[in-house]
Amino acid sequence: MSYQDDQSEDYLFKVVLIGDSAVGKSNLLSRYARNEFNSNSKATIGVEFQTQSMEIDGKEVKAQIWDTAGQERFRAVTSAYYRGAVGALIVYDISRRGTFENVSRWLDELKVHSDSSVVVMLVGNKSDLAHIREVSVEEATALAEKNTMSFMETSALESVNVVDAFQTVLKEIHKIVSKKAL
Ligand code: GDP
Ligand code: MG
């Protein structure tokens, strides 16, 4: 396990947030990185990323998490956005069916632009709106299984599963990368 003995080796993983406009990508990131929620957030302007650290197996693992430039129409997200990404969270809004129906298109985009080993998580955000839900947990689970993604419902508003979602992706990436390093 020479890799684990190498104290100097820290990691920086690029993770991208994708999914339709207004599903809550920017709020998931601000909740994770700063524990903030913004109820009247405008469409994100400019590509932004946040760097967030966590410890896995005694190593500092840093994630550079990218948020779209409010360019969430298909093909408007450029290849530079995806370049070098080792993880992705594809976000939809459980109260807007159309955002779920577009998940497969986002997945196709991701596959075009990134390595096949990219770790993908499907995120059904706005779980606090379960009373007006348009997407069931069962069908999201089925879609995730079909495409070897993990799946979680989150609420950026109520701070449910947000840290968990990001950390699950990071742990999975770390597992793959450390296997490669051995
Ligand atoms: P983005 O376009 O995907 O980055 O979405 P935003 O983060 O800008 O959020 C779009 C809208 O959805 C904003 O009005 C947010 O306040 C709202 N929103 C984001 N996350 C949640 C959530 O978990 N629950 C609810 N009820 N609203 C949310
Ligand atoms: Mg945004």
TrEMBL record:
It is found in: Endomembrane system. The keyword Cell membrane does not apply. Keywords: GTP-binding, Lipoprotein, Membrane, Nucleotide-binding, Prenylation. It comes from the Eukaryota. The lineage of its organism: Eukaryota, Viridiplantae, Streptophyta, Embryophyta, Bryophyta. This is Uncharacterized protein. It is a lipid-anchor. One of its GO terms (molecular function) is GTPase activity. One of its GO terms (cellular component) is endomembrane system. Its main location: membrane. The keyword Repressor does not apply. Belongs to the small GTPase superfamily. Rab family.
